[in-house]
């Protein structure tokens, strides 16, 4: 459930992804890398990638997007459809689930704060595997189930901890106490409870890391824990210092358990393609 504020925000995380890619693909020329932001929202990260010279695209369910690719008039904000993102952001077809790109299109697929909302993870990663080139790279960041005591979208404490069994009485308690997000101000508490109940049911889908690991092994034949690398190249100076200590592995594990995960995969090329590349 992306808020309107998020959709209007063109600030992205291209810098962090770029730093990770520098380590994973070093050396690389951004102009040679075609990259997809899965769950792109308004395209802030896509814009960041374009500014850094990547051939970048984005896709999202885009429930308020037009059907025709690039037809932004009257739907998305003017700041988006008049920008250089026009034609680079495309809607995902939900039924049957399909990413709007040909097979083997991308060298890299990234996502940020997306897969805690995706219910059909198996379908989604199957499509990501389809649009990735052989030996293509995936990088995915998402909050841990035990991340923060307050759910960031509905502002109710401990929702992610309780999910998928969030009690109605718990949602009602905080609604009665006046807890609202920016779109619920002025709403009666019963209406807030109904909205938050639906969001917990339809908008959240937390997995633990071992579930991603199993699905990646099945889908890509590969799994990479990038949490320590993310800490080393991130903007948090304290985290960078700790990440170079002898106990860095433990700090990265705790960070992934209680804060945010950064995991990746490669789409392993068939043996015949690998041999051809070496010959």
Description:
It is a single chain. The chain is α/β, with parallel strands linked by helices and 279 residues long. The protein has helices spanning 4-8, 14-24, 44-51, 78-81, 121-131, 159-162, 168-176, 189-202, 209-219, 227-233, 237-242, 248-258, 271-278; strands at 34-38, 55-60, 89-91, 106-112, 132-143, 224-225, 260-266. The protein has two domains: 4-144 and 206-278, Rossmann fold (3-Layer(aba) Sandwich), CATH 3.40.50.150; 159-202, no CATH class. It has a seven-stranded mixed sheet, with helices on both faces. It is globular and about 55 Å long. The chain starts with a helix and ends with a helix. Mean pLDDT is 83; it is low at 1-11, 68-79 and 273-279.
Widest sheet, order of strands: 3-2-1-4-5-7-6
Total number of domains: 2
Order of helices and strands: HHEHEHEEHEHHHHEHHHEH
CATH topology of the largest domain: Rossmann fold
Q: At the first level of CATH, what is the class of the largest domain?
A: Alpha Beta
Report the uncertain regions: 1-11, 68-79, 273-279
CATH architecture of the largest domain: 3-Layer(aba) Sandwich
Describe the main β-sheet briefly: 7 strands, mixed
Describe the global form. Answer: globular
Beta percentage is 15-25%
| Secondary structure: helix percent | 25-40%
Topology, number of strands: 7
How many helices? The count is 13
Mean pLDDT: 83
